[in-house]
Amino acid sequence: MQPLGRQSRAHIPRMPRRLCAVLDDIVDQLLSQLSCRPSARGQQLQGLFRMSNQRNVCLYSQSRWAMMVRAGRPSAAAIGIICKAPRVGLAKTRLIPRLGADRAAEISACFLRDIAASIASLGAAVNARGYAVFAPSDAEEEMRAIMPPHFGLVCHADGNLGRVLLGATRDLLSSDHRCVLLVNSDSPTLPTARLREAIEHLSLSGDRLVLGPATDGGYYLIGLKKAHPRLFEDVKWGSEVVLAETLSRAAEIGLPIVQLAPWYDVDDAESFTMLQAEMRGHLPEFAGGGAAAATRAFLISIGEIEPTVSISG
Q1: I need a labelling partner for 71 at 20 to 30 A (CA). Which of 187, 236, 252, 308 fits?
Q2: How does pLDDT run across 162-188, given as a tens digit for each residue?
Q3: Element at 242 (helix H, strand E)
Q4: Are strands 179-183 and 219-224 parallel, antiparallel or unpaired?
Q5: Three-class SS state of 94
Q6: Alpha carbon 228 to chain centroid distance?
Q7: 72: exposed, middle or buried (C-beta count within 10 Å: 0-12, 13-18, 19+)?
Q8: Cα–Cα distance between 114 and 191 in angstroms, integer?
């Protein structure tokens, strides 16, 4: 069959949202009975509309508008970057007063490149594959230009972050990955060792939740072996209580928790100053960060850090 292309997307029949939600739940239940390793029939059920060729698969669901493009054999771990296309005026909006709209969009793209590079640097020994979990739904070409060629693309264009996280977890687990890490796109210097440590915890027997606490009260990483909807319900997304509420939800369902060492997000003028300090070697509590080569080069080019300064770690 021909892969679902741009022209045919407009002809996808629309279905009532309630019916879509019911069908999604049925598919998820069937997939869970298959231990997240769908048979040929299970793969046909996965997604309301699906067309594929030998290398690419596109999944569409009106209720959670998911599109996945993947190639090759699945890896044990999937690492998805939760991100939006770095568009001028829409990307890193809280940095616009500090940098301007154009530069805020450019640094957003740099963050994505650096985080993707950290994931790619894990190497074959870790047996992980990177993905961009992106929005909006028309940004596939933009994301493909930024991400490494071997990364998969998963589109979840939903205004509710909890639904995005849950949907991405379900999609990646149903693609034969044994565990999923979802990381934010605001931490360009996040140490690769944190990703490796999270995968090591998830490779142990038994179910668990792995969280990387962020200094603003959220988390920079969440790792799961199963999709637990309760973790993403009744959470005040974007607030300083996200981590606390997620820990509370995990306790409610009796899910063991592993917390990694904290790291920081760069999403406003104050945290941008922290990034500059780290790159100047003046932020000892966050020593050992990743190279963030793209971000560093961009900051040098606009005069925000000095060319002779080396990144900590």
Answers
A1: 187
A2: 999 999 999 999 999 999 999 999 999
A3: helix 242-252
A4: antiparallel
A5: helix
A6: 17
A7: exposed
A8: 11
